[in-house]
Write a structure and sequence with these properties.
By secondary structure, the chain is α/β, with parallel strands linked by helices. It has 2 domains: about 50 residues, RecR Domain 1 (Helicase, Ruva Protein, domain 3); about 110 residues, Dna Topoisomerase Vi A Subunit, Chain: A, domain 2 (3-Layer(aba) Sandwich). About 40% of the residues lie in helices and about 15% in strands. The chain has 7 helices and 6 strands, in the order H-H-H-E-E-E-H-E-H-E-H-E-H. A 4-stranded parallel sheet has the order 4-3-5-6. Helix 1 packs across helix 2. The longest helix has 18 residues. The radius of gyration is 21 Å and the shape is globular.
């Protein structure tokens, strides 16, 4: 049996930090200790910021993004291309594409991927909301920016079927050699996808 080395408040902080993706029990202990040592500079402001987030952060009723406004900042931006809708699995994917700054389009967050083994079906995702947005008109292209996994591709095929007959162009992200990548270090699946998706030079 492991002996308790700190009070219950500190143990609870460690347990909660350990639930954050990327932090295991050891990393959580280190993070908790660092926060406690820097109580005034880090722990108190972090606590206040988290309390404010609990009160103010909400899910956008249009696209599924998280923000302090509904509709979110992305949906309410009049400079965005309203004819293009980028479909992503999660908010983290939306944020990654925004950081890239490659397109000034609008988004739609599915909230995951289809996974029958995990009991996740179409009704568990925001697919009906996507179909409604497209059916309302004004969308010319749907870009499926889902992960290149079995679940991601299954979800992409299902969405394509659901959008059939709505007169919208459906495209997906290119797969293949990453910028700065060396062929010798790539797996066979990536190389095969890159050869199939080759473009004119």
């Amino acid at each position: 049996m492991t002996q308790r080395i700190a009070g219950p408040e500190i143990e609870r902080l460690i347990q909660l930090l350990a639930k954050v993706p990327g932090l295991g029990p050891r990393s959580a202990r280190r993070a908790a200790l660092h926060l406690i040592k820097k109580k005034e500079q880090l722990l108190q402001p972090l606590s206040a910021a988290m309390a404010e987030a609990v009160d103010k952060v909400r899910v956008c009723s249009v696209c599924g993004n998280v923000d302090t406004a509904d509709p979110c900042t992305v949906c309410s931006d009049p400079r965005r291309d309203t004819a293009t809708l980028i479909v992503v699995e999660d908010v983290s994917d939306l944020w990654a594409l925004e950081r890239a700054g490659a397109m000034n389009a609008r988004f739609h967050v599915l909230g995951g991927t289809l996974s029958p083994l995990d009991g996740i079906g179409p009704d568990d995702l925001n697919i009906a909301g996507l179909v409604s947005r497209v059916a309302a008109g004004g969308v010319a292209e749907i870009i499926l920016a889902v992960n290149a996994t079995v679940e991601g591709q299954t979800t992409a095929h299902y969405i394509t079927d659901q959008l059939g007959g709505l007169g919208v162009k459906v495209t997906r992200l290119a797969h293949g050699v990453p910028v700065g990548g060396e062929l010798d270090y790539l797996d066979e699946g990536t190389l095969a996808a890159a050869l199939k998706a080759r473009t004119v030079f």
